[in-house]
Amino acid sequence: MSSKSLITPPLEIWAGVECTVNRVGDEYSDQLERNGHATRLEDLDLFAELGISAIRYPVLWERTAPDSLDEPNWLWADERLKKLQELGMRPIVGLVHHGSGPRYTSLVDPAFPEKLATFAGMVAQRYPWISHYTPVNEPLTTARFSGLYGHWYPHGTDDLTFARVLLNQCRAITLSMQAIREVNPSAQLVQTDDLGHVFSTPLLAYQAELENERRWLSFDLLCGRLNCDRPTWDYLRSAGITEDELNWFLDNPCPPDIMGINHYLTSDRFIDERLERYPKSAHGGNGKQAYADVEAVRVCAEGTAGVGTLLQSAWQRYRLPLAVTEVHLGCTREEQLRWLYEVWHLANEQRQKGVDVRAITAWSLLGAYDWNSLLTRFDGYYEPGVFDLRSPHPRPTALARAIADLAQGIEPNHPLLATPGWWHRQERLLYPPVSCILEQAPNKNIRSSLIPKPVAIVGATGTLGQAFARLCDERGILYRLLSRQQIDITNPASVDAALSEINPWAVVNAAGYVRVDDAEREVDACLLANAEGAAILAAACAKREIPLLTFSSDLVFDGSLSTPYTESDTVAPLNVYGRSKVIAEEKVLTNNPASLVVRTSAFFSPWDDYNFVTIALRELAAGKTFIAADDIVSPTYVPDLVHASLDLFIDGECGLWHLANLGAVSWADLAILAAKQAGVDTSKIITRPTQELGLMAQRPTYSVLGSNRGLLMPVLDNAIARYLQQRALE
């Protein structure tokens, strides 16, 4: 994945752990507890292996002194900060991260600034060697979410609460840095905030102008630049803030040593009074005008402002050193890679233009929980980051390799970087496109110098091959879908010719003999297609040093267990089909140990009219009796399988993996579950033992798939709901 061309001088590569402690009502949510880093000191060794020079790291007030400033517990911070010193990673210490402080204060507590400053001084006294601090992360964003939008405690929804929360935090930053610098006069402030641009229709230009000025408020206050000439001065005064409160910042400037710019694809917004164009969930207003507020990337024809433009704007306004202090995208793996690469590229581009950009920061090293609902609900929704926590131990993803390369000044060269991210592709537009012109050019598509190469998908006519093609289209993955006429995997010459002509960077084998009962009569045909064909393909891929993804089955097991089968359990197939898959696994991993072999089970797909769930619903809807077996299986929603397989494949995983949706049911109960969700009568579903169904091939009575490598798939109920939604769209 790495070329050997060094970029000189390289940007620094920082990283960070999502560590938010936020409060909704009386309930606190702690990301460090949820991601397990609170109890895993060994994570720091994994982070150090990336080669990062600095890490945004929490010594949070809520966690260290939850009950009283007189009773801090330093054990956790002592152990981890000492380890960071030993590993040579410079900590940028955060004290409050989207929090409102412990229960003995709040963001609207007049004493909040002094209390945080007391804590900051205690941290500096205990760790005088720490050189970089972020006392409060994203004060403007936190003020919006806590004081203006009502998402977080104290759940304000007015300009005055917003202003109080913002000024309290900014005053706390200034006082905290004063306290820290009494101990360490050279301590540096790395001040972060989210930065985006608001676009609008002409009617709402006044609102966009206010918001595009308001986005600088935290930096203007800290830099001592917010005076009566600024429109935001009048805005804050009209909200109820006194001149004395604003003048305090003019008298006590605390400019950042490094401005930390956090930017997400949702940061740029578009506001439009034409409500009929947008879903009701986007409707809102400013008290004068009702309007929809949507992601600009979904409506702006030319694209969004983007990181490069925002860095240029910040530099022109402040002339302070900059860093991109959060780079994260909750998406599929190749899109995460594309976003990281784009931000790195744009930051380098701005450096070449004279902008003092010091670093980019790989955020969410361990991923994040429930940010899809802005932490307003605790649903357990997880998006992986540099490491994936759905394995027994944090598993490095493709991002880890890319970050390690960047930390060495090596430009990533993964073939998937040759395709633009979804935010540059036409399918990003969910609403009627609107022209959004900035004085500076909107974010341009960063095109890698790499030559695009496809992934070869073998099995053009099957359910799995068709699903791979459809989802590769959605994910912007170039592919060639190959029929048996184009590649006969049982013929080495045919395989060699096809791979030579296509020159793929990877191969997905979605072909094979799938008729389980017919295989009992057509033994040779089944073994040839499933075992010999897969072995030939694996050898050809090994010769070209390209990765192979192929599929196996739960039918490699005999059903003697009563707990889910894992990758290390002994195989003992009961039928010819299962035996063909066992042989295939052995030969593929012998011929090409770098292959990824995915065992899966009991497909159902929204794009296939002949899978079990679709047939069951069709028969029941027609009022017919439906007979189903009582064998216990792991039903697998094909889109989930394809997405998870592709992510693992891109991560460079190899060997055996089990992938099935989380849930164990009988075939009959699967029909009942689907019918209930679809609102179809279940009374005509009849359960029968498999042996009474007259099937030729013997099946295991229990073939549920678990995993000792990672549980990556959503729960079955959720998968069925999405299956029904997708079927309704087809």
How would you summarize this macromolecular structure in one to three sentences?
With 730 residues, this protein is an alpha/beta fold.
User: What's the oligomerization state?
Assistant: single chain
Give the uncertain stretches in residue-range form.
1-8
- The computed structural class is alpha/beta
Please compute the radius of gyration using only Cα atoms.
28 Å
Main sheet record = 8 strands, parallel, barrel
Name the strands of the widest sheet in spatial order.
2-5-6-7-8-10-14-15
User: What share of the residues does DSSP label as strand, in percent?
Assistant: 15-25%
Number of helices: 22
- Tell me the helix content: 25-40%
- CATH homology group of the largest domain: Glycosidases
Q: What CATH architecture label of the largest domain applies? A: Alpha-Beta Barrel
The CATH topology of the largest domain is TIM Barrel
Q: How many distinct beta strands? A: 32
Q: Could you report the average pLDDT, rounded to the nearest whole number?
A: 95
CATH first level of the largest domain: Alpha Beta
Shape: elongated
What is the domain total for the residues? 2
From the N-terminal CA to the C-terminal CA, the straight-line distance is: 38 Å
